[in-house]
Amino acid sequence: MSSTRIFLVILFVLTLNSCSKDDPTRQADYSYLDESFKQNFVFNEGSYWIYQDQSMNMDSVVLAHCDSGFTSNCPKNACDLNQYVSLTYENVTQGTVFNHYLIFNSIKYNGGGEWGQDGQPIFLVNQEEGYFFNGLLVGEQIDNLLILNEVFYNVQKMSVQADFQYQSEFEYDTDFYFSETVGIVRIVIHDTINGTQTWNLKRRHLEE
Asked: Could you give phi then psi for residue 17, rounded to 5 degrees?
């Protein structure tokens, strides 16, 4: 093989290697959840919340498992890898299991999927009142809210509109009231058959 031909082959190989290293589509970028968001709404296993409705019925929820990691939403890591936290809850009263899936600075009910695409949003971070996304309407920000003789601060109302859900999880329009570092302090279910049900947080235990 002539020296000129050898030089061309070497040059071709070096060019391939250079493109492989510099091609931005092959470099994964990591997208992290907002730190204050995680501090406010990620709890430790064993934490529990007990709710009471207007008829004095009780409903108990326990955080059974917490999992976190990064999604891989494109072949060969060509797109961002998004951090997620999945909180698996057991409703002791009803004998059901559900999750709160934190991703893209939102909380999804029964979320997950290969790209974090599943789940009905129930909370959005840093959106103005009236913002609407995938069946979730951002409500008012409440400085303090009195519930069963306890005052909760920095309460954010979020409303799922059943007819517009991204993933059908709620039979009726449902309002969620989130308090920072506490979680959901009130749930209002607008049952069009049996009447509105309001569940207020009566007692809680948050594992350290």
From this structure: -65, -40
Length of the chain counted residue by residue = 208
Phi-psi region of 115 (alpha: psi -120 to 50; beta: other; left: phi over 0): alpha
Distance CA 116, CA 114 (A): 6
Q: Supply 108's token pair.
A: 């999804």
Residue 47: band (very low, low, confident or very high) from pLDDT cuts 50, 70, 90: very high
Among 62, 61, 84, 59, smallest CA distance to 71 is for 84
- Which single residue is written with the structure tokens 């470099």? 27
Angstrom distance (rounded) from CA 164 to CA 94: 26
Backbone angles phi, psi at 71, to 5 degrees: -75, 160
pTM exceeds 0.70: yes
Rounded CA-CA distance 131/149 in Å is 31
